[in-house]
Every structure is written in C-alpha cells, then in structure tokens.
C-alpha cells in the first residue's frame, strides 16, 4: 500500500494524512478522501447495488489502483446509539429486500450447515464441561471460578437449547431445494453507519451472497451490550420478515455462548466471565418472547 499512497499523495497533494486502522485519511484543499487496501471488487458490487436501487455507500473516487481504493470521506453527524441502531437496521432490511432471491441448493448444503454448527456446539460443551470439572475439583475456588460455577447451568442450558433447536431446524429444512440469499454486508457495527448528506454503510470488504441472517448475527454479537436489540429485531422483521427456518437458525446462532477468553489476572478473568454470562442472559431475554408466543398459539 505504501507505493500506492506515494502516488496518491502526489496526485491529491494532501496537507495532512491520518492513519485509521488499515485506512488512511487524506485531507486536501479539494476535499477529503479515505484510502483503503483493495480486497474484493467493490466497484462491481456498487454497480450491482445501484442496479437494484440501493446506493447507501460512500462514493468510490478511484478504483484503478492495483493495491487500494479511494473513497470520499464522510463527516458523520453524531447521533444517539439507539437511533443509529434503528437507522442501520432500516438500511440493512432495505439491502436484503432489494437483493434477495431464492437459490437452488442440494440437500448436502443443509447437511454441511448442520454438521458445522453441531461440531461447534459439541466443542463448546466439552470446553465448558472441562472448565466445570476443573472448578469442581478446586479445594479453594478463586472468585472467577466461583462466578463461573454459579452460572454454569445457564451456559449449559443455552447449549442444550441450541442442540435441540438445530435438530428441529434440520428436520424443517432438509427437504427444501431452495434457500433465500441476498447481498450480506457481513461486517455490521454501529461504527460502520455514517450519516452525512445521506446515510451510508462503510466497510463492505467482507460482503457475501448468503443468508440475510448473517448481518443480524454480526450486529448482535458486536452491539448486544450497547443497544436494546429486541426493538432492533422487531423493526427488522416488520421490514424484512424472516421465513420460519431462517428465524430458527438466527436464534440458534446468536444463542451459542461465546468462548471465555484467557486472561492473566483475576480481575480480568472475572470481567471476561461476566461478559459471557451477560451475553447468555441477554440472549435468552431476546429470544424467549418468540418461543412464548409460539407456545400460547
């Protein structure tokens, strides 16, 4: 990227440039630009999205460089996070509505998804069972071990829920010959929503053509502590109703508890275990109303 930047600095003659992650912001007398390493063919994606009536992305100024793309730099308006969440889910529902279609698939497609998820569930079961056994055999439990042992039942219940629901999902879907796919942003976070002269989503480098629920899963896992996701999900479902098998798979994927990251000191261990426990409780609160309503009906 350094060679490309040298060329761009010569062309745009910036009076200041700022490194921001993998991107570089160029401030020039003719406007500000952001330079990012080239990953996928963003120009091709943008052309397709425009053809589908979706143009909520930053303008691509220069895609001719081998290593980088040059985009317009957008000065965003500061907004409350809950309002940003409403706006981003409106945009992503619009994206899915405008680009979704049904794709023919073989039975092996669903079998591969099932086997991948059940493998993940079994791995987490073994991982958490091992942690429980280690904690159970400790004579004097540390605060982090005690915190984990007190809440192990909740983590285990979440894994049992995922296992049961996955079997039901597979029974529901294995006779299907088509599945719904759409352009999936695949990197949703509130920080990737900007509102300048218009609303845009940035960071499209990981986009996919896949099931739309991926965007909801990614957004939830990144923002569950920051926003009331139940309102976000309800808003999305009104604008882009999920099919029964899509909704079931969504709940399975978000109900899977994250693995506890290793930490060096006891305070950070307690903080990390609390994070995982909070995730499990918040996810159960999010999902339960959908199952309660099914029971009542």
Write a brief structural summary.
With 297 residues, this protein is α+β, with helices and mostly antiparallel strands.
Descriptive notes:
- With 297 residues, this protein is α+β, with helices and mostly antiparallel strands.
- It contains nine helices and ten strands.
- A five-stranded antiparallel beta sheet has the order 1-2-3-5-4, with helices on one face. Strands 6-7-10 form a three-stranded antiparallel beta sheet.
- Strand 4 and strand 5 (68-72) form a beta hairpin.
- Helix 4 (107-136) runs antiparallel to helix 5 (143-173), helix 5 packs antiparallel against helix 8 and helix 5 (143-173) runs parallel beside helix 9 (266-296).
- The protein starts with a helix and ends with a helix.
Give the overall shape: globular
Q: What is the chains' assembly state? A: single chain
Spatial order of the strands forming the largest sheet: 1-2-3-5-4
Averaged pLDDT, please? Answer: 91
As a whole number of angstroms, the C-alpha radius of gyration is 22 Å
Head-to-tail CA distance between termini: 58 Å
Structural features:
297 residues, alpha+beta, Phosphorylase Kinase, domain 1, Aminoglycoside 3'-phosphotransferase, Chain: A, domain 2, five-stranded antiparallel beta sheet, three-stranded antiparallel beta sheet, 9 helices, globular
Helices and strands, with pairings:
Blueprint: H1 2-12, E1 16-20, E2 23-28, E3 31-37, H2 42-51, E4 60-62, E5 68-72, H3 81-99, E6 101-104, H4 107-136, H5 143-173, E7 178-184, E8 193-195, E9 199-201, E10 208-210, H6 213-223, H7 229-239, H8 244-255, H9 266-296
Antiparallel strand pairs: 1-2, 2-3, 3-5, 4-5, 6-7, 7-10, 8-9
Helix pairs in contact: 3-7, 4-5, 5-8, 5-9, 6-8
């Amino acid at each position: 990227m350094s060679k490309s930047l040298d060329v761009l600095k010569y062309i745009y003659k910036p009076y200041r440039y700022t490194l921001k992650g993998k991107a570089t912001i160029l401030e020039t007398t003719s406007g500000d630009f952001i330079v990012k390493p080239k990953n996928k063919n963003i120009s091709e994606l943008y052309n397709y999205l425009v053809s589908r009536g979706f143009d909520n992305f930053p303008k691509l100024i220069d895609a001719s460089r081998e290593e980088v793309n040059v985009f317009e730099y957008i000065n965003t308006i500061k907004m409350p996070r809950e309002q940003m969440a409403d706006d981003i889910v409106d945009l992503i529902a619009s994206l899915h509505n405008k680009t979704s279609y049904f794709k023919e698939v073989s039975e092996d497609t669903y079998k591969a998804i099932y086997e991948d998820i059940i493998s993940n569930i079994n791995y987490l079961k073994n991982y958490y069972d091992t942690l429980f056994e280690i904690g159970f055999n400790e004579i004097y439990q540390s605060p982090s071990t005690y915190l984990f042992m007190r809440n192990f039942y909740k983590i285990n219940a979440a894994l049992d829920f995922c296992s049961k629901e996955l079997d039901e999902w597979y029974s529901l879907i294995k006779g299907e010959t088509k599945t719904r796919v759409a352009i999936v942003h695949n990197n949703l976070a509130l920080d990737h929503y900007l509102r300048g002269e218009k609303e845009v989503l940035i960071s499209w480098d990981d986009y996919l053509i896949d099931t739309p629920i991926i965007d909801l899963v990614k957004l939830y896992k990144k923002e569950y502590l920051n926003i009331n996701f139940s309102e976000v999900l309800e808003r999305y479902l009104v604008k882009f109703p999920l099919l029964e098998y899509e909704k079931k798979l969504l709940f399975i994927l978000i109900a899977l508890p994250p693995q506890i990251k290793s930490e060096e000191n006891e305070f950070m261990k307690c903080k990390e275990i609390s994070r995982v426990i909070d995730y499990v409780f918040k996810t159960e609160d999010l999902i339960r109303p959908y199952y309660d309503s099914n029971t009542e009906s």
